[in-house]
Amino acid sequence: MTEGNFVDYVKIHVNSGNGGKGSTHFHREKYITKGGPDGGDGGRGGHVILRGDKNLWTLVTFKFKRHFKAEHGFHGSKSRSTGADGEDLIIPVPLGTVVLDSDTGERIAEITTEEDVIVAPGGMGGRGNWHFKSPTNQAPRYAQPGKEGIERFITLELKVLADVGLVGFPNAGKSTLLAALTSAKPKIADYPFTTLKPNLGIVQHRDFTSFVMADIPGIIEGAAEGKGLGHYFLRHIERNSVLLYVIPADSNDIKEQFTILNNELTRYNPELLDKNFMVGISKADLLDAELYVAIESECKATFKDIPFVMFSSVSQHGIATLKDGLWHLLNA
User: Fold this and answer.
1) Which of 35, 293, 302, 331 is the most buried (most CB within 10 A)?
2) What is the pTM of this model?
3) What whole-number distance in Å separates Cα of residue 149 and Cα of residue 133?
4) 91, 43, 90, 45: which is closest to 71 by C-alpha?
5) How far apart are CA 292 and CA 245, in angstroms?
């Protein structure tokens, strides 16, 4: 899915380098007429390597370049000199990138740290003719060719890494909350699916501490089966440490909304319910004092041991309590 410079799903072609040929050279030197075989080995072909980079947040660079080829290994030469290895091709990718074999769907790697993952190993260099000298073959005129590199299509799928992920229906107030807490500038409007891509921002907390918050595109009922934005947003939720369910105070049925959200997460991946989470009742500024008390009582009865906060991104009511609650869960 793409919007602007945010790209979270691409298919690319990678080709590692071929190994260099082994040499069939024979030693030649003045006064030495038959010096014997001294052909060196070929060098290894270059690997294609994906490297995790914490400074990247999108796969947008792959919109413009889809084919990647590493350098071939160099051929062996005389005096048993081994050819140089081909230069590895290193491709930086954002943390949270899942690498799949495009043909089989097999998961190759999941890059969550600044690590290197070889996705296409270079071909081995061929052995030179000196390896094949024997009592019965004093002058072998044979050397191995280098092995060919690997050519394959791989799929890169980005799952946003954030401390807190906002989960809720379209127009629940997630984007407004992110804009109120961070310097992020998400698109905000009063129609469904305003957010078509995850937005990230840094929330400043007490004593110069901070955490990263992600506004995930809104859930609808049936999303786990692909309705609405389907798996495009659900895969991003997997990488959040803590979830904040955002339910507007003017909902017809707060408990029902929470149940639907929970069900969609469970159907997509039951392990999501193992994460720490809390409930935020947004748009509290729309309530008069009497209705505020009534909804607060309803939430206490509904959520019981689940932490919840009633807040307003507009008036800033409850925002400090919300940040304290999220910080507590992140450090639980």
Assistant:
1) 302
2) 0.66
3) 28
4) 45
5) 19
Structure tokens at 82: 């081994």
Q: What is the predicted pLDDT for the residue at 117?
A: 96
Same domain, 206 and 325: yes
- Going by C-alpha positions, the residue among 221, 177, 220, 215 that lies closest to residue 197 is 215
- By the 8 A CB rule, do 278 and 306 touch? yes
291-326 pLDDT per residue, tens:
999 999 999 999 988 999 999 999 999 999 999 999
Tokens encoding 300: 């206490």
Q: Residue length, the chain?
A: 332
Q: Could you report the per-residue pLDDT of 136-187, keeping only the tens digit for each?
A: 888 898 899 999 999 999 999 887 767 898 888 888 888 889 888 886 554 4
Structural domain boundaries, residue 44: 2-158
CB 234 within 8 A of CB 271: no
CA 156 distance to own-chain centroid: 8
Tokens of 114: 């600044």
Q: What residues have CB less than 8 Å from 113, skipping those under 6 apart?
A: 52, 95
Q: What is the pLDDT of residues 77-131, one digit of tens each?
A: 988 899 999 999 999 998 889 999 999 999 999 898 899 999 999 999 999 998 9
What's the number of domains the chain is made of? 2
Q: Which two tokens stand for residue 209?
A: 């501490």
Residue 304 is encoded by which pair of tokens?
């019981």
DSSP 282-328: E-GGGS-HHHHHHHHHHHHHHHTTS-EEE--TTT-TTHHHHHHHHHH
Residues 18 and 72 sit within 8 Å (Cβ to Cβ): yes
112, 128, 158 — which closes off a domain? 158
